[in-house]
Amino acid sequence: MGRKWNNIKEKKASKDVNTSRIYSKFGLEIYVAARKGEPDPESNRDLKVVLERAKTYNVPRAIIDRAIEKAKGGSDENYEVLRYEGFGPSGSMIIVDALTNNVNRTASTVRSAFNKNGGSMGVSGSVAYMFDATAVFGLTSKTLDEVFEIMLEADVNVRDIFDEDEGVIVYAEPDQYHAVQEALKNAGVTEFSVAELIMLPQSYVTIPEDVQAQFEKLIDALEDLEDVQQVYHNVDFGE
């Protein structure tokens, strides 16, 4: 389990370095979520999830408010949620989630990023079956035993709970996201080091050292694309 969390942790750390880009992506995601229903997180669960994620990335309140106000203002900008699947070197698998107002542009830029960096686009379903949609929470204010007890008392089903150096990690089914979150908040947890809905690989591959730089370049190229929100992969670089 540690290696799985290590990949998530490294991904989050790399994103934290590029704050302006991350803030921009969150601003768009908040706007799209707010337009799906009421621009109020208490009645819009999609928005509530995005705002909880934004909090763990320290997205400024001004960016959040601006995105919600834009949604309230009835902007006619429409975005589609897209998922691309592909392959990198040495059997690596990649999922790319995007938000776009121009499907042709996004498909072209994602395909180009794959082709120029040693990867290839796959058809829908060629990769996703090897990943599980997962709710993941990280917290430092409770012990492993305390979190187990909280989940039991709240009668919340979780997939796994384990210890890491940074605290306790909880994996659950996506439909249990809010139940886990509320159970922990009701038990006094006020901050999460991570609160995400992710695509978690069922198994990992280790790629040779001589292609690691190429793989990292491919991931960076995909994450740098304006329309791309999240990139997931099954590569384990080890501890």
Automatic annotation (TrEMBL):
It is found in: Cytoplasm. It comes from the Bacteria. Residues 79-235 form the TACO1/YebC-like second and third domain. GO terms for cellular component: cytosol. Its main location: cytoplasm. InterPro entries: Integrase-like_N, TACO1_YebC-like_2nd/3rd_dom, TACO1_YebC_N, Transcrip_reg_TACO1-like, Transcrip_reg_TACO1-like_dom3, Transcrip_reg_TACO1_YeeN, YebC-like. Gene3D superfamilies: 1.10.10.200, 3.30.70.980. GO terms for molecular function: DNA binding. Keywords: Cytoplasm, DNA-binding, Transcription, Transcription regulation. One of its GO terms (biological process) is regulation of DNA-templated transcription. Residues 3-74 form the TACO1/YebC-like N-terminal domain. Belongs to the TACO1 family. YeeN subfamily. This is Probable transcriptional regulatory protein IDH45_25520. It comes from Paenibacillus oceani. The lineage of its organism: Bacteria, Bacillati, Bacillota, Bacilli, Bacillales.
